[in-house]
Amino acid sequence: MRYGELEVLKGVSLGVASGETFAIIGPNGAGKTTLFKVMTGEARCDRGSVRFRGEDVTRLPAFQRARRGFGRTFQMARVFPEMTVMQNVVSSLESHRRWSGLSLGKWYRYKPSTEVATEAESLLRDLGLQDHRAVEARFLSHGDKKRLEFAIVLAMKPSVLMLDEPTAGMAQSDRLGVVELIGRIRAERGITVIMTEHDMDVIFGLANRLMVLNYGEVIASGSVGDVRDNPVVREVYLGKEMVRA
């Protein structure tokens, strides 16, 4: 993948098994977010391919990959700021039902169907947002906006949940809550998680395997223990080039 003359990704290759948590780490500018964009369809690679469950999705746009099961969160939570928390989740649920060919209820209704409203309430309770259901999203704290973004994505019933710096900008207490939330969602829903993250405690608490990028190249990949003990990774992380993931 190139941005003009700059080669951002250089022969990066990875495979993620169903149900595992796979982490991608590396210094700022290593290519982590670009790799996420290529995988989700926000950007097209210049060479290579992206395959999902045996299907080549390289040329599919992001919305079609979302319909196939890709869910995505961002470093800065993307929500509908002037809609309430409940309206955000209902919109996502109704969108998924349209894609799936399911009924939204009577065409003249101006409120969500009982089924959609019940599912939205369940999601809000599950993510600890039930007391904020009537609050406009723009008034939420940073941590609650991230939780709302989780709810929006989960409403789309993803099989692959891609998290770009899920604890960015959070206090330590909020980070611990997000780690618990991601782990519980993965266990309860059987979702595959692919994530980037700068907090190594979060990585070690969640990841089954991880890959290290540096200047667009893979310098290590394997189990958490193998990568942590890799001398090249230790040099990069502890040397002058980089002081954090």
Give an account of the 3D structure.
This protein is α/β, with parallel strands linked by helices and 245 residues long. The strands form 3 sheets. Strands 6-7-8-3-9-10 form a 6-stranded mixed beta sheet, sandwiched between helices. Strands 1-2 form a two-stranded antiparallel ribbon. The chain has a two-stranded antiparallel ribbon with strand order 4-5. It is globular, with a radius of gyration of 19 Å. Helices cover 39% and strands 16% of the residues. The protein has helices at 32-40, 62-68, 85-100, 114-126, 142-154, 172-189, 200-206, 224-228, 231-238, and strands at 2-3, 6-7, 21-25, 51-52, 55-56, 70-73, 160-164, 192-196, 209-214, 217-223. The protein contains 9 helices and 10 strands.
Overall helicity: 25-40%
Percent of residues in beta strands: 15-25%
For the record, the CATH architecture of the largest domain stands as 3-Layer(aba) Sandwich
The N- to C-terminal Cα distance equals: 21 Å
Low-pLDDT residue spans: 238-245
CATH first level of the largest domain: Alpha Beta
Looking at the structure, the CATH topology of the largest domain is Rossmann fold
Helices and strands in order:
Layout: E1 2-3, E2 6-7, E3 21-25, H1 32-40, E4 51-52, E5 55-56, H2 62-68, E6 70-73, H3 85-100, H4 114-126, H5 142-154, E7 160-164, H6 172-189, E8 192-196, H7 200-206, E9 209-214, E10 217-223, H8 224-228, H9 231-238
Parallel strand pairs: 3-8, 3-9, 6-7, 7-8
Antiparallel strand pairs: 1-2, 4-5, 9-10
